[in-house]
Design a protein that fits this description.
Strand content: 15-25%
CATH architecture: 3-Layer(aba) Sandwich
Distance between the termini: 33 Å
CATH superfamily: Dipeptide transport protein
């Protein structure tokens, strides 16, 4: 069983301020939370391995893509650091095709996709650091539904035929995502409260993530169909920016139309085309 884990930090237990996610501004606090991010990922990997995962690739998917501490992860886990520029973004290499550093052969497809440390989308009250992709985005809608980073990359997984089995992060995201993907196993480690966050103890969070991932991998065959994100036949994407200048600039992307001073819209039949567009207009 081959597992892909995408790891973010704003949904990590205890996070409450932007400085805590920033290598340049956060100092000792950032160092602490990158350790907690790594601890939660390590717990997820250990749980997956105990349920038979034979190969695990972890994508460091926050900011620089260079946050996780590799030595904190279990032996046998591969780590994808920094950004290639490919359309997969926070799920880059989910489509396989890279050279396996252990065996020197081309790595095939993945059997499951999972996310740790994810957070509520922009304009949502579920996390004091709620956002979608970057600070220039006010909100993104896909077919009328507000899109989170989890939703964006789960649709990418669905397009590749990969079930989404596990999510950890803030409670609001977990509840909304479980409603959207019924077979999904979720572990809520925090809850937003205005500009604050109430979180589990860091070791309790890691333990629950371990147990949740262990269960999700063990029951994959049983729940595989219920773990595929619903993939529509067509997509209407609306992006609202924080500034009118961004909307004007990105309305010039082929097929995009300006909706109002701060928003654009475009239509696509294939989610891969949406992911490709996002590389240029987010």
């Amino acid at each position: 069983m081959r597992l892909f884990i995408s790891s973010d930090i704003e949904g990590t237990a205890g996070i409450a301020h932007w400085d805590e996610t920033d290598a340049d501004k956060g100092g000792a606090l950032y160092q602490y939370f990158r350790e907690q991010m790594s601890r939660e990922v390590a717990a997820a990997c250990q749980g997956a391995q105990e349920s038979g995962a034979s190969a695990i690739l972890v994508k460091d998917a926050h900011d620089s893509g260079r946050n996780l501490i590799p030595l904190m992860l279990p032996r046998g886990v591969m780590i994808h650091r920094d950004w290639s520029g490919a359309i997969g973004s926070m799920a880059d290499a989910l489509d396989g095709g890279f050279i396996d550093p252990a065996g020197g052969e081309t790595f095939g497809s993945f059997d499951a996709f999972a996310c740790t440390g994810y957070h509520s989308p922009a304009y949502d009250k579920g996390n004091p650091l709620a956002h979608t992709m970057n600070g220039s985005i006010y909100e993104i809608f896909v077919n009328g539904r507000r899109a989170s980073e989890f939703m964006i990359h789960s649709l990418y997984a669905a397009r590749l035929g990969v079930p989404v089995i596990f999510l950890s992060g803030d409670r609001a995201l977990c509840e909304a995502s479980k409603e959207w993907i019924p077979g999904l196993t979720t572990v809520a480690v925090s809850e937003g409260r205005g500009g604050a966050s109430i979180s589990l103890h860091p070791m309790d969070a890691a333990e629950r993530i371990h147990d949740g991932m262990k269960s999700a991998v063990a029951s994959l065959d049983q729940h595989k169909k219920r773990c595929l994100a619903p993939l529509p036949d067509a997509f209407e994407v609306t992006i609202r920016y924080t500034t009118h200048a961004k909307a004007l600039k990105n309305s010039q992307y082929p097929g995009a139309k300006r909706v109002d001073e701060k928003a654009i819209r475009f239509d696509a039949d294939d989610w891969l085309d949406v992911m490709a567009a996002f590389r240029f207009i987010l």
